[in-house]
């Protein structure tokens, strides 16, 4: 049973990617109902609270924090195995607030996404430092957009060149886990735009095997730590 | 009759101020800001870049000056010049960090205070263009920057998107931000628009195609052009080199030059 919480308040992309554009949130006695993609996958996003795709959420920090609090407090998720929180880029209000508000709960950790080039790694090193600062464990790093295989000639190109060794070198230097590398596949953008599952649409793609491998590693990490937690109890 | 001259604002010598915005992260705002500055310099203009992305300041690295320090003068902070000619100058929080990996973990109010300082206290001198590079979104940084710049009448904003709908969806909101804050929209750039394989020249639309142009049409704003994915461009940025100078034959060059030309045409129209 999975819940996906989108706390990118200014740029809520999750509804579109999940094929849930235009859906609205319903209130009941027990709180806000998540919007369900499938019986075991519920989603919440500010996107569901906007009436038009042109509506902008032009809010300063405190108002964004207030909504994040509401999302955590008022959404009736039910019993869930995984709560995944999608965040905007940065190390600011949203990030501080989510860590703070989830302080009483047990957060397994963070998965950090980067692309191979130094300009991206620069920012990700800061994100890793943020995690250390707020004592958020790091499950690992994913190197996205890692190489492109031309569909015609099958040669590989590094569109975002890893001039400083990519995520691999950074993870070595900072002693964090590299969960995997996902190559560029035009089908990914297409599936996201159509709101369909890329994994189902393109089961043979090298990107699909990468995703699956990464997801497995994340699950293993969570199972291991859950087991350790239980041992302590 | 002796009159004390009014204190000259640090932006008094800046002829045109423009913002580079996007609703979406990772679309290449800082790349476009950098390439626009280089293009304008090649047309003989003096350009400044104000980097108000406080959490992810990318501009210093793109000009290979990330290790530089910022000095003070009587009128405020001296911007960092990228070359001997002093034709491009920069200001970024990147120069103020003790270590490059230091995270700026600030909430809104602290960010707003620094942005106000950045707008008022950098001694730019005389510039033809001040390009303001922003983080993605429509929040503190954007509200504060627009408010602080309002008295200096920016000429407008360039909005950057990638072609696919997920990106366009966020940039639509950025257009609304511009409307609500009275910021004119100079146009939309569709970045990462197609990739030409260097081995066989086949063009693949990795991030789909056409979303930027459609959005411009829908919103009634100018479409400034498509910039293709170009590993030579990425490589140049990584190494802090002048792409415009070194790769005039590359696939991204005509698009970037065309965007700069439209900006120049727009401002010369204004003057006449």
From TrEMBL, chain A:
SUPFAM superfamilies: P-loop containing nucleoside triphosphate hydrolases. The keyword Iron applies. It holds the Pfam family ParA. It is found in: Cytoplasm; Nucleus. GO terms for molecular function: 4 iron, 4 sulfur cluster binding; ATP binding; ATP-dependent FeS chaperone activity; metal ion binding. The keyword Nucleotide-binding applies. Keywords: 4Fe-4S, ATP-binding, Cytoplasm, Iron, Iron-sulfur, Metal-binding, Nucleotide-binding. Its main location: cytoplasm. Signal peptide: none annotated. InterPro entries: Mrp-like_CS (IPR000808), Mrp/NBP35_ATP-bd (IPR019591), P-loop_NTPase (IPR027417), YlxH/NBP35 (IPR033756). GO terms for biological process: iron-sulfur cluster assembly. GO terms for cellular component: cytosol; nucleus. Component of the cytosolic iron-sulfur (Fe/S) protein assembly (CIA) machinery. Required for maturation of extramitochondrial Fe-S proteins. The NUBP1-NUBP2 heterotetramer forms a Fe-S scaffold complex, mediating the de novo assembly of an Fe-S cluster and its transfer to target apoproteins. Implicated in the regulation of centrosome duplication. Negatively regulates cilium formation and structure. This is NUBP1 factor. It comes from Crotophaga sulcirostris.
From TrEMBL, chain B:
Component of the cytosolic iron-sulfur (Fe/S) protein assembly (CIA) machinery. Required for maturation of extramitochondrial Fe-S proteins. The NUBP1-NUBP2 heterotetramer forms a Fe-S scaffold complex, mediating the de novo assembly of an Fe-S cluster and its transfer to target apoproteins. Negatively regulates cilium formation and structure. One of its GO terms (molecular function) is ATP binding. The keyword Iron applies. It holds the Pfam family ParA. The keyword Iron-sulfur applies. It is found in: Cytoplasm, Cytoskeleton, Cilium axoneme; Cytoplasm, Cytoskeleton, Microtubule organizing center, Centrosome, Centriole. One of its GO terms (biological process) is iron-sulfur cluster assembly. Heterotetramer of 2 NUBP1 and 2 NUBP2 chains. Interacts with KIFC1. Interacts with NUBP1. Keywords: 4Fe-4S, ATP-binding, Cytoplasm, Iron, Iron-sulfur, Metal-binding, Nucleotide-binding. It comes from the Eukaryota. This is NUBP2 factor. InterPro entries: Mrp-like_CS, Mrp/NBP35_ATP-bd, NUBP2/Cfd1_eukaryotes, P-loop_NTPase, YlxH/NBP35. GO terms for cellular component: axoneme; centriole; cytosol; nucleus. Its main location: cytoplasm.
């Amino acid at each position: 049973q999975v819940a996906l919480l989108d706390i990118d308040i200014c740029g809520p992309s999750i509804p579109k990617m999940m094929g849930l554009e235009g859906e609205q949130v319903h209130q009941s006695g027990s709180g806000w109902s998540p919007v369900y993609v499938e019986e075991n996958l519920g989603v919440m996003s500010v996107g569901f609270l906007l009436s038009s795709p042109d509506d902008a959420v032009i809010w300063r920090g405190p108002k964004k924090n207030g909504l994040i609090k509401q999302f955590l407090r008022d959404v009736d998720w039910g019993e869930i195995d995984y709560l995944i929180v999608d965040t905007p880029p940065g190390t600011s209000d949203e990030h501080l607030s989510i860590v703070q508000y989830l302080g009483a709960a047990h957060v397994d950790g963070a998965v950090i996404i980067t692309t191979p080039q130094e300009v991206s790694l620069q920012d990700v090193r800061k994100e890793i430092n943020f995690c250390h600062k707020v004592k958020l464990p790091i499950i690992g790093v994913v190197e996205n957009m890692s190489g492109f295989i031309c569909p015609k000639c099958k040669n590989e190109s590094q569109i975002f060149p890893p001039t400083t060794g990519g995520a691999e070198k950074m993870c070595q230097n900072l002693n964090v886990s590299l969960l995997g590398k996902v190559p560029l596949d035009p089908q990914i953008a297409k599936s996201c735009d159509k709101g369909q599952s890329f994994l189902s649409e393109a089961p043979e793609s090298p990107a699909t095997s990468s995703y699956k491998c990464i997801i497995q590693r994340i699950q293993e990490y969570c199972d291991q730590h859950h087991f350790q937690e239980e041992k302590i109890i | 009759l002796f009159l004390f001259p009014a204190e000259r604002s640090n932006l008094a010598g800046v002829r045109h101020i423009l913002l580079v915005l996007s609703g979406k992260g990772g679309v290449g705002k800082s790349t476009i800001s950098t390439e626009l500055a280089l293009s304008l310099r090649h047309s003989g203009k003096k350009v400044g870049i104000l980097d108000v992305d406080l959490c992810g300041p990318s501009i210093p690295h793109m000009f290979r000056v990330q290790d530089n320090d910022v000095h003070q003068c009587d009128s405020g902070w001296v911007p960092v010049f990228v070359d001997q000619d002093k034709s491009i100058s920069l200001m970024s929080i990147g120069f103020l960090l003790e270590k490059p990996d230091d995270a700026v973990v600030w909430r809104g109010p602290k960010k707003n205070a620094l942005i106000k300082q950045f707008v008022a206290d950098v001694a730019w001198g005389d510039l033809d263009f001040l390009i303001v590079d922003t983080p993605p979104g429509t929040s503190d940084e954007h509200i504060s920057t627009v408010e602080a710049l309002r008295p200096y009448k920016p000429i407008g904003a360039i909005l950057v998107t990638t072609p696919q709908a997920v990106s366009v969806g966020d940039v639509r909101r950025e257009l609304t931000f511009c409307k609500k804050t009275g910021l004119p929209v100079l146009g939309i750039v569709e970045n990462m628009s197609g990739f030409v394989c260097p081995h066989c020249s086949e063009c693949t639309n990795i991030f789909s195609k056409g979303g930027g142009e459609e959005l411009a049409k829908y919103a009634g704003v100018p479409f400034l052009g498509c910039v293709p994915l170009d590993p030579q461009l990425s490589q140049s940025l990584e190494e802090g080199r002048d792409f415009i100078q070194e790769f005039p034959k590359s696939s991204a060059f005509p698009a970037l030059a065309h965007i700069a030309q439209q900006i120049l045409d727009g401002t010369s129209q204004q003057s006449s």
